[in-house]
Amino acid sequence: MKRALITGITGQDGLYLGELLAEKGYEVHGLVRSASGERYDAVVDAVPSATLHVADLTDPMSLLRSLDTAQPDEVYNLGGISFVGSSWEHASAIADVTGKGALNLLDAIRLHVGDDMERIRFYQASSSEMFGKAQEVPQHERTAFWPRSPYGVSKTFGHFMTINYRESYGLYASSGILFNHESPRRGPEFVTRKISRAVARISLGLEDSLSMGNLDARRDWGFAGDFVRAMWLILQQPVADDYIIATGQTHAVRDFLDLAFAAVGIDDWGRYVHVDPRFLRPTEGEQLVGDTTKAREVLGWAPTVSFEELVAMMVESDLAAEKKGL
Ligand code: NAP
Ligand code: G4F
Asked: Domain 3-181+222-245 belongs to what topology?
């Protein structure tokens, strides 16, 4: 039985990946920052067989202790502060957790495996935010990075550390450069879930307005369940490498609004939605869209959920949750 250790198991991707690996027969271990609370309970519900270890990416000893206890064959580093929008307000904290946290984990792995570098396969959750001011459209694995947010800069550090540990020490260290992926488990601060939740509440008469940022921003949005399958495939390859994971299509925030409101029978959403400068960002990623040729050819990976299906899935889920609460 293979053993996997997931940092960030309480997050959107951690939950889907934990479920996937448990289904595949893995012994799943996860890092949690606290051994109680709603997010802890969500892991227990989704992956009841998982063993959870209290640790923090900013605390190297807690990482080493977890590795020594779990003895994983595969480590998936999904932990980190992941919200771009607030990363300007806590740039230093995001550098510590999302950037240096990856290095702490790589170092803990080195200490844990000693001379036997082949004992562990490492996956780093890299991000399309590293492309920021995109130097090419679409972006592929060799496109130069130009991160436009403290989050993007921190992810770029973690990404290059992953490559550096692969090249310097022969560690099997791979990365997935993932474009936006969403689901009913998405945090409520991210634009897709913010919209699906508000649309559900507006349709039930629980709210009457939605404050938004840049409605013309475009993203390459896919379904998180598809994207965690790619993470697993990446670590099953004979040689460590980096892969773009995306849908290859972009939509504007207003397209998401169109479909989400239409799903509850509202066509003229303009009377509910207001642009609030608080949600505008100092700089934005531009023309972010992934070229997935390598993932398709090498991993045999392709997304299965369309943009339309994703929006419908999220609105339906939020409607059901809001109705339950009534
Ligand atoms: P998420 O839902 O925000 O989950 C983040 C996870 O990181 C949570 O489990 C959180 O735990 C954990 N975490 C936060 N601070 C930590 C710390 N100091 N030490 C250890 N763990 C910590 O993010 P996600 O959407 O699942 O994304 C997973 C990873 O992929 C993240 O690294 C994200 O930056 C990256 N990524 C995401 C996307 C996307 O579109 N979703 C795209 C590209 C890359 P708590 O529950 O304790 O807060
Ligand atoms: O949903 P978002 O906050 O996601 P963002 O910034 O693209 O980051 C997500 O995807 C990255 C992958 O590239 C991950 F690495 C990262 O961890 C995270 O998962 O915003 C999407 C777009 C942005 O252009 C933003 O300006 O939506 C725009 N937007 C417009 N109004 C808004 C809003 N975003 C949020 N969160 N809230 C708004 O009201």
From this structure: Rossmann fold (3.40.50)
**Half-sphere exposure (CA, 13 Å, Cβ side) for 58?**
10
Contact of 75 with 8, CB cutoff 8 Å: no
pTM equals: 0.98
* Domain 187-219+250-288+305-325 listed as CATH 3.10.20.740: no
What's the CA gap between 315 and 312, in Å, rounded?
Answer: 5
Active-site entry in 16, 40, 123, 151: 151
Alpha helices in 204-306 (DSSP H): 224-235, 253-263, 293-294
Are 298 and 243 spatial neighbours (Cβ–Cβ below 8 Å)? yes
Q: Output DSSP code: residue 134.
A: -
Q: What is the DSSP letter of 297?
A: I
Count of beta carbons in the 10 Å neighbourhood of residue 258: 15
- Closest by Cα among 103, 114, 266, 243 to 179: 243
Residues lining ligand 1, Cβ inside 6 A: 7-8, 10-14, 31, 33, 39, 56-58, 78-82, 97, 125, 127, 178, 180-181, 187
Residue appearing with tokens 């601060």: 189
148 exposure class (CB count in 10 Å sphere: 0-12, 13-18, 19+): buried
Give pLDDT tens digits for 236-272: 999 999 999 999 999 999 999 999 999 999 999 999 9
Residue extent(s) of CATH 3.40.50.720 domains in the chain: 3-181+222-245
State how beta strands 51-54 and 27-32 pair.
parallel
SS3 state of residue 193? helix
Concerning whether 127 is annotated as a catalytic residue, the answer is yes
